[in-house]
Amino acid sequence: MQNKLTIKDIKVKNQIVLVRTDYNVPLKDGSVASDFRIRASLPTINYLREHGAKKIILISHLGRPDGKKVKELSLKPVALKLAELLPGVPVNFVDDVSGPDVEDAVSHLGNGGVLLLENLRFYPGEEKNSEDFIREIIDSTGANIYVQDGFAVIHRAHASTSAVTKNLPVYAGLLLEKEISSLEKITKSPDRPLMLMLGGSKVDDKAPLIEAFKDKADSICIGGKIAADGAVSPADKIYIAEDFDEDAEGNKLDCGPVSTAHFVETAKKSKTVVWNGLLGKAEDVAFATSSTIFLKTLGESPEIESIILGGDTTAFAEELMEEDDKLHFTLLSTGGGAALEFLGGNSLPGLEAIENK
Question: Which bin fits 277, alpha (ψ -120 to 50), beta or left (φ > 0)?
Answer without folding.
Answer: left
